[in-house]
Amino acid sequence: MGFKCGIVGLPNVGKSTLFNALTETQAAQAANYPFCTIEPNVGQVAVPDPRLDKLAAIAGSAKIIPTQLAFVDIAGLVKGASQGEGLGNQFLGNIREVDAIVHVVRCFENDDIQHVDNRIDPTADAQVVETELLLSDLESLEKRIPNLVKRGQQGDKESKIGASVLGQALDLLREGKPARLTKPRDEEEARVFAQAQLITAKPVLYVCNVNEDEAAAGNALSARVFDLAKAEGANAVVVSAAIEADLVIMEMDERLVFLEEMGLHETGLARVIRSGYDLLHLITFFTVGPKEARAWTVEKGSRAPQAAGEIHSDFERGFIRAETIAYDDYIALNGEAGARDAGKLRQEGKDYIVKDGDILHFKFNV
Length: 366
Description:
- With 366 residues, this protein is α/β, with parallel strands linked by helices.
- The protein contains 14 helices and 12 strands.
- It has helices spanning 15-23, 50-59, 88-95, 122-153, 157-174, 187-195, 220-232, 241-248, 252-261, 268-280, 304-311, 313-317, 327-332, 336-341, and strands at residues 4-8, 41-46, 63-65, 68-73, 100-106, 204-209, 235-239, 282-288, 292-299, 319-325, 346-348, 359-364.
- The strands form 3 sheets. A 6-stranded mixed β-sheet has the order 2-4-1-5-6-7, with helices on both faces.
């Protein structure tokens, strides 16, 4: 299914540069002035997964198709956005449509790049954006909850559940804490809470944009952001947008040498994707054959029919069973035939919970 991450941050923190590098396009105009990104740009990125190449090599697949990740470069935000300042209303509207927030914060010194507040303080920058999102959610719930309470008192069960769980979120917001720290008591509360689509309930990944020579270990500024992320129930990674921009124009062999010289073992894209998967509780399954080896994404805990539905709705509707091989077994036994002969090809039914790395072949009848 993939997922959509909205890249946000104050103006001139490097978010459009990062977007261009991640998507290997120049779709977003990276320029040294506020609001250079007026409309959200969307870029599809192939999710790197070395397992897919190994599977394709064993199966002799003619094509390799990775799963996709969407990045949305959202216009820069300034203080007062929740009241419509700058591009506030547009920003808030765009951010409601993404699954997760990739919040780029500036953790580098550079006198040639102007900061909107003339200071380098990534935690303060992060709190400017977070505050505007908090205020937007606060206003929404303060309007919504009185009606839920009233209907709940009249016997409406759904409203009573909403008043309870969203009341907990409202208390957090009034304390200056994000709604994602809300703890629904059961599945019904979790469902109602998710339906509220609060901005601060979205998972957040802080991307600490550092100078090239600090990309491997980060710096004191990025360390503060990691502490902030931990307190907020968010994630954080260190990336140098400048390095990622350089990598875009290199051949693969050059990239590997360059990364090694910089003390890095992988690209910033790989770190962002891995953290994003963790953030959204996503896993990958594969379909493998002579025509193609393909990766698919589902939420952790998904059952086999749901995974089948990612390929085609008919597969889910007419699901019979899933022929399943664990990734390690497929590799160790050199493919489907070896796995079958060794008794490692399993027939799984509708209640099977898909595991990360499963190779699946669906049987269905519509």
